[in-house]
């Protein structure tokens, strides 16, 4: 048989045809055949399968399995706010200020996609401490002024970290005068 796209003869004329379907005169099934067996050997019946808890490693009984222990007295319910990383919301927001500012904010902007609260603190950290880094570079020749700015930086990191942790329960944002509004507009535009 030739399957070339351009042929002289129609390929339907040389093709073997299927046999016609056999038609029986009787519409009822063969009376000699046994009826279909509808026993309980069906593997898809739900009662024969074990419960899903059968396949878990968690202990049964008291409901306290892996990951269900309350270490901080009610603070673990903060996991209701979903984040991309396997960390709590308040801890991620604190890391925006504690992980080598402004690099920690940029890192969280790259990996965190679910929480606007964490992204706000990451934007604010990246903006504020990039500006502070530039100010430090400009005034680096004045040692006394550099140390005063360094102490101010440590106080600002402490203040922002504390508020990022404390305000995570109700998702309040502590906004710095210029950079907080800019960070909020970036998060709202995303």
Task: Describe the protein.
The model is unreliable at 60-68 and 75-80 (pLDDT under 50). With 190 residues, the chain is mainly α. It contains 6 helices and no strands.
In short:
Helix content is 43%, strand content 0%. The chain contains six helices and no strands.
Features:
single chain; 190 residues; mainly alpha; 6 helices; 0% strand
**Percentage of residues in helical conformation:** 40-55%
Number of strands: 0
Low-confidence stretches: 60-68, 75-80
Helices and strands, in N-to-C order?
HHHHHH
> Strand fraction band?
under 5%
- Please give the largest β-sheet: none
Structural class, by secondary structure, is: mainly alpha
Average residue pLDDT: 75
Shape: elongated
Chain oligomer state: single chain
Q: Whole-Å distance between the termini?
A: 61 Å
Individual helix count: 6
